[in-house]
């Protein structure tokens, strides 16, 4: 066996390094000493040594000027060349091996070394002074800018708020999007609230761009105020969710968006619940996905999702991990730990959460006593359960009997299980008194988000952030933008990232190994309901792409005694015949209906229909043939995100089933009502998109 060893004794020479004062002097003197005896022995003219020295001096002088060396350094190096050349010339003439020649050479070497050391120190000091001068210049310019900002805002606050401040510091944000003023309030009991209440007036007086604000908040003590002034509107641009899917923790914070200074804002939900308010079109669904992305990256959180709207909030986080048979894809776990889309499953989940929380209270008493805490120590071994309930605030205010039962369970979880590590994130469609009237929500949901998207109706910011002044809906007119406040960060403008479906799939794959397992104690309490949550029969709805019709088959009424609108699909009749007049009247009638409404309402009961022969029998438009309905649904699915219109579907099925446009319109309207399809546009330009391909709200 051989080993490689490296000698550790003796000096280590760096042959690529330049000469220092000592090595430079040695190089000069030894070179001169070697040249003098050689030149004397070979009869070399002494003047050649002097010429070579002069050339070296001139060359070093030119090089020193080019690199901007100090004059002292240039003179020292030129003199070293000339002195060395002069000694060589003298020694070649008088003899280089005499004691006088050797002594003088040694003296020259010492002089050259001392001069080189002195010039090196001078160059170093000169360089440091140049750096310090540049820094002083920058500091002076920055100080001048800060003094100008301070003076400007002192005058502005005096003019708008009638308060005279003394500015102590101005901090420029590293992102270049604004600055913070730290000021001392005048004596006499003036508080920062007086400035905070004039935020919009200050922003207007400063001519800040739309989306930029001047927000006052508490300083280091009650006699100080911090004024954050945004000068660049970062809310107008859309930013995608950061591509770093690394691990997070409840204790280090979970990013939910960014402030107007472009800095991330994190939430800490170990003891808090959260409330997200946002009307349709404000980006609330995207915000839910950002929340689920943060929880998926958190190593001490398990996410349970309740979404009674077909589970649409949680499905994108489950489907990448399930195959067509309902089994998990190898090495991939869902981004959420449990998903409920129905009342029964939601009730089962809430009952399980309550059972887990109550059992933890008893089973972990010894652990809490050992840690000397009255709260369960949350970790990857004992994860926190976060219940994300889409439109959960509406459940709490519903008058439906089933929803009241769910509301009771939700409030019980919020009220009783904080210490045991079970918290909730509720969403709501509006910031109204009916939604926020529950004291439990206002008290426990200390992290609050209000996405506005420019919507004014139902957006009472005073109810979401009571006591906070200066917030206006028109400050955040962009989708995904709004206001966010928590105990760690006062309510202010923010925006969340846009998270795309492909990112959700990437996050599910990247975070599979990060998800904790429910602890053994909790699994015992959760029982079979939790253990079988991913069984094929309970996840079948996740793989069922089409809603089957439950309507009974009905025959199309005959045409006797009334106008037969099915004749519209026949060939053109002869002009002037009774049938032609009848068909022309029918076409004109349907064109008027389409022009005004774009569709025809479903008829009522037979008792409400006009008698045959006394008007248009619209019941003749209904054809409940199951084969035709399934073909219509197939065409709707095949149309994808672009969708299709009723006329196009009717034309495609005319030869196969003889289905009229109005029959297709009736089916499409039914599917829009039950959520199978989504209608986009109005009138003759209306088109229909299957819910699988429908854009998110």
Short description:
The protein is α/β, with parallel strands linked by helices and 697 residues long. The protein contains 22 helices and 16 strands. Helix 7 (284-297) runs parallel beside helix 16.
Summarize the main sheet.
Answer: 10 strands, mixed
Principal-axes geometry comes out as elongated
| Whole-number tally of structural domains | 4
Structural class: alpha/beta
Task: Give the tags.
single chain, alpha/beta, Rossmann fold, four-stranded antiparallel β-sheet, 22 helices, 44% helix, 13% strand, elongated, disordered N terminus
Q: Your description of this structure?
A:
This protein has 697 residues and is an alpha/beta fold. The protein has 4 domains: 21-133, no CATH class; 163-230, no CATH class; 273-543, 3-Layer(aba) Sandwich (Rossmann fold), CATH 3.40.50; 565-690, Orthogonal Bundle (Arc Repressor Mutant, subunit A). 44% of the residues lie in helices and 13% in strands. The protein contains 22 helices and 16 strands. It has helices at residues 21-42, 46-66, 71-94, 99-161, 193-196, 199-205, 284-297, 315-318, 343-363, 365-371, 392-397, 401-416, 433-436, 439-444, 461-464, 501-511, 520-531, 540-543, 578-597, 626-638, 646-653, 661-674; strands spanning 166-172, 178-184, 214-218, 224-230, 254-259, 264-267, 274-277, 301-306, 338-340, 384-389, 422-428, 447-451, 481-486, 489-495, 677-680, 687-690. The strands form 3 sheets. Strands 6-5-14-13-12-7-11-10-8-9 form a 10-stranded mixed β-sheet. A 4-stranded antiparallel β-sheet has the order 1-2-4-3. The chain has a two-stranded antiparallel ribbon with strand order 15-16. Strand 1 and strand 2 (178-184) form a beta hairpin. Helix 1 runs antiparallel to helix 4 and helix 9 (343-363) packs antiparallel against helix 17 (520-531).
